[in-house]
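This part of the workshop introduces the protein records we will be handling. As an example, a complete record with its sequence and its structure tokens follows.
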Amino acid sequence: MKTIIEPFRIKSVEPIQFTTREERIKILEEAHYNLFLVHSDHVLIDLLTDSGTSAMSSRQWAGIMQGDESYAGSPSFFRFEHAVRSITQMPFIIPTHQGRAAEKIIFSILGGKGKYFISNTLFDTTRANIEYSGATGIDLVCEEGKHPLIPAPFKGNMDVAKLEKTIEEIGAEHIPLVIVTVTNNSGGGQPVSMQNIKEVREVCKAYNIPMFIDACRFAENAYFIKQRELGYADKSIQEIACEMFSYADGCTMSAKKDAFANIGGFLALHNEALATECRNLLIITEGFPTYGGMAGRDLEAIAIGLEEVMDEHYLHYRVRSMEYLTEKLTNAGVPVMQPAGGHAVYLDAKSFLPHIPSSAYPGQALACALFIEGGVRSVEIGSLMFGKYDNDKQLIPATLELVRLAIPRRVYTQSHIDYVAEVIIEVFQNRNTITGLRIVEEAPLLRHFTAKLATLS
């Protein structure tokens, strides 16, 4: 394999702040062992999220200067609307300031006590908005998706047999939506096959349940389909994306991912009556329907980003970069999600730290160790993020204990990634010295954002 070449030139840079190990230990203690509470100035390589952290292109920055800030009917909105429609083929496009705002609107309308939303895997804000409405979220990822270290081409797929069984048990009238998340973020950034999307659609159609796509990383998912699924090798990314969306009744998207934007998102729908309800709620919470909580400049940046992300040279570089880090870690014996996902590399904390039980949050302990060792900020996707309590206040652990290293788009070079690999391998070699954590303070929803933790002696 030849060296991975970034398909862009760098025109502007910002400095990285360096700290010592001793300084990072103190920083982490003051942040109560929660990396969300660490100031970004104290982070050397920031892999906390790929959301809103991308480097925008010169075309996007030029578009920002052309952004029209009219309150109603801005031409920037119509360019944004055209870009979204050209991919989703959906007539009703509702801008929001980010993806979770779109989720808040749709689940406020369709959710409520006694309702159930089924998905391959719901991410944190999606589940939180569902639960905040009083409804329940159910994850039905395929069996392959439950085994991080065993490769399979489409580990993000939904278990279609379990979907049908669950609908029969709950009753279709209690299920307002089935949601397919592409790629499956909580499940290791793993893709969903077109065949699986079609099969889920057929089940939903049989039971008269709408199917939505959580489209944050639609282009990365389309690229995996092109590479791995029979019959798609000669299709363009846009053709594959259009087919994916053709099976859906609607979608939500955070444009902070695959549109390279620093802010923004949208709802796209076929149902006019539902779109009217969503717009009415949008006006109360977000703003007028032609800006939806965004500035005109952001609408311009998203419209351009949605075009740029479907460039196959970029997508090849993006996916190959994840494979590169995964291969380096695998060769060193580090337990890492197989195969590589589209936007992040996921460490299997359960295998990495077998001496730390789920009740002591091995993923968070590992994330803290990576920060101390090399100033690398990652995020736990395990029992801190998704754990629940039973009636006796005992932890119900998450299915997987992962640490996600989300790579911002067009930000870091190969040497940065080599450094990250060196840090992870160093931590792995000294893994027996890592101890677990306990929660000192937590919020009722999305606790991982603000929780305070302490070490276990």
Remarks:
- The first strand starts at residue 45 and ends at 46.
- The radius of gyration is 21 Å.
- Residues 21-50+311-455 form a domain with the Aspartate Aminotransferase, domain 1 fold (CATH 3.90.1150.10).
